[in-house]
């Protein structure tokens, strides 16, 4: 599969550069993975995933084959069936990865995070070792070639710069886990030599004052996300050889780069900056994005900034031997050969846009669909009426939707919620909506409080106390703040969901905090037709279809 994808003899320029050649879509049902969409431009260029379960038959390096099972048991915490090195989920994902198709897998869970991490680490390491073997073999052939021969043989096996694999991760702890898996996969009977491991462990191990050290109950998914070192500003290069791994290698001497979007943004810089560098992103052959949904809870602009600087022509010469550079790399077609693997726990418009607009793999791409669900609303134990308002909106942009919902809120929701019996209403929103609403409430002199992810600990603590005891009409509460702290807010009588939550389990989590014992509580949701995916995760596919098609724009659900 490696040879077929990167050394294809056919000139792909007429296919990949022709906008008239549209992406075709084919519905599939893949065992274990479930319903999926296969997208491709030319069916003759597709590599069909192998059904073999033996890693050797899948052209995986012998060293990795022997260590996959041990690494799975020790670091991924899973035990495959007897005779197998991978679990059924890992086998089917690896066969897709090994065919060098792009992949969007939006089914990450607390339970399968390490299982998925092992399979993409195995694939990335296999890719790097194959490239290295090929380069060494060609070096030997060139060295042994007789000086007097007229044979003019070209061995094109490299990119314009050395880094081949870029793995984007949200926190240092995830980088530590990936490196430990790489070391385990490289270690057979002989211990792999790892340079700078002590320094790496000290810089990437758990911080003393982590979020998990705070008092109070935190859900299992929160504890998993924020375990270990949660610093989101890091980057580290790695050079890989047969029996050794060198950490902190210079980027232009590295095979693999592990980084956070912020960590890369710091050295990519902005136009006009004196010192900036992004040439190392010019020849990335494999891009792996793990826990992509968390990047939206950090700063999505940093993530997009990285994509804008992939596969640009290098500004400097980095000791490259142009006689060894692949022609498609010289011709600026690298992005069409790059494999992109995206893992997420939810399907979000921003992630789908990345997959549709920034993944150009000529070998096709697979979009695994999330299973039909009954919705997280079933986890709500509150008997309060839950009212869903469909807001008319003509454009899918976030600004258009925000403006439409804001006008609806002013006319229909706020007048009702400012009456005497409707105090202590929590308004859940993202940060952009928060700024809009805060400015409006200030101008209209409405009785309100607010807390967001940029507030001091003292401000947040005081606002929570005042909300419970002073009984204001409203408190603005941002999604990022809830993601990073998962407060168990007290004193909630009503909730207005100005924005649907990115994580569907946040919905019942907050609804169940409403104090229904002594108060008539309500949950009010604003949504547009462009929120269909998020709405489906909360109320289920059947109810979503009804709400979007119904003549009535307001629907009420009572969970009993």
Automatic annotation (TrEMBL):
Keyword Nucleus among UniProt keywords: yes
Swiss-Prot/TrEMBL GO biological process terms: maturation of SSU-rRNA from tricistronic rRNA transcript (SSU-rRNA, 5.8S rRNA, LSU-rRNA)
Localisation per UniProt entry: Nucleus, Nucleolus
Domain of life: Eukaryota
Domain UTP25 C-terminal: 381-554
Segments crossing the lipid bilayer: none
Main location: nucleus
Molecular function as annotated in GO: rRNA binding; U3 snoRNA binding
GO cellular component: small-subunit processome
Keyword list, A-Z: Nucleus
Keyword Transport: no
Family statement drawn from the similarity comment of this UniProt entry: Belongs to the UTP25 family.
Protein name: U3 small nucleolar RNA-associated protein 25 homolog
Species of the source: Candidula unifasciata
């Amino acid at each position: 599969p490696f040879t077929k994808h990167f050394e294809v003899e056919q000139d792909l320029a007429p296919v990949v550069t022709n906008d008239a050649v549209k992406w075709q879509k084919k519905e599939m049902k893949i065992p274990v993975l479930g319903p999926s969409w296969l997208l491709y431009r030319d069916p003759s260029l597709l590599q069909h995933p192998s059904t073999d379960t033996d890693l050797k038959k899948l052209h995986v390096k012998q060293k990795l084959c022997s260590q996959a099972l041990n690494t799975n048991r020790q670091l991924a915490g899973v035990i495959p069936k007897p005779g197998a090195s991978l679990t059924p989920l890992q086998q089917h994902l690896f066969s897709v990865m090994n065919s060098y198709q792009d992949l969007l897998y939006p089914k990450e869970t607390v339970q399968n995070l390490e299982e998925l991490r092992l399979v993409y680490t195995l694939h990335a390491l296999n890719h790097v070792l194959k490239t290295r073997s090929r380069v060494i073999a060609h070096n030997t052939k060139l060295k042994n070639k007789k000086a007097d021969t007229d044979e003019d043989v070209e061995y094109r096996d490299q990119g314009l710069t050395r880094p081949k694999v870029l793995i984007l991760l949200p926190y240092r702890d995830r980088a530590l886990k990936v490196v430990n898996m790489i070391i385990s996969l490289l270690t057979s009977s002989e211990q792999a030599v790892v340079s700078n491991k002590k320094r790496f462990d000290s810089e990437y191990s758990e911080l003393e004052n982590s979020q998990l050290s705070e008092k109070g109950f935190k859900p299992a998914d929160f504890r998993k996300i924020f375990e270990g070192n949660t610093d989101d500003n890091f980057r580290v290069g790695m050079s890989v050889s047969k029996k050794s791994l060198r950490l902190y290698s210079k980027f232009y001497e590295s095979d693999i780069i592990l980084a956070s979007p912020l960590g890369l943004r710091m050295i990519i810089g902005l136009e006009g900056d004196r010192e900036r560098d992004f040439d190392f992103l010019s020849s990335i052959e494999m891009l792996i994005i793990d826990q992509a949904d968390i990047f939206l809870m950090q700063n999505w602009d940093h993530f997009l900034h990285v994509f804008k600087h992939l596969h640009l022509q290098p500004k400097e010469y980095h000791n490259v031997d142009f006689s060894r550079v692949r022609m498609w790399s010289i011709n600026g077609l690298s992005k069409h050969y790059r494999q992109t693997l995206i893992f997420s726990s939810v399907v979000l418009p921003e992630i789908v846009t990345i997959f549709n607009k920034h993944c150009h793999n000529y070998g096709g791409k697979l979009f695994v669909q999330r299973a039909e669900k009954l919705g997280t609303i079933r986890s709500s134990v509150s008997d309060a009426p839950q009212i869903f308002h469909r807001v008319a909106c003509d454009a899918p942009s976030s600004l258009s939707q925000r403006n439409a919902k804001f006008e609806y809120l002013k006319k229909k929701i706020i007048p009702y919620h400012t009456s005497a019996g409707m105090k202590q209403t929590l308004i859940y929103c993202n940060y952009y909506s928060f700024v809009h609403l805060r400015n409006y409430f200030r101008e209209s002199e409405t009785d309100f409080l607010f807390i967001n992810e940029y507030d001091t600990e003292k401000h947040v603590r005081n606002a929570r106390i005042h909300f419970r005891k002073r009984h204001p009409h409203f408190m603005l509460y941002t999604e990022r703040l809830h993601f990073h702290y998962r407060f168990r807010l007290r004193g909630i009588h009503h909730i207005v969901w100005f924005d649907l939550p990115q994580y569907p389990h946040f919905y019942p989590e907050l609804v169940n905090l409403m104090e229904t014992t002594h108060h008539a509580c309500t949950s009010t949701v604003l949504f547009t037709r462009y929120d269909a995916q998020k709405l489906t995760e909360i109320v289920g596919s059947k109810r979503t279809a009804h709400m979007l098609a119904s003549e009535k724009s307001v629907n009420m659900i009572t969970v009993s």
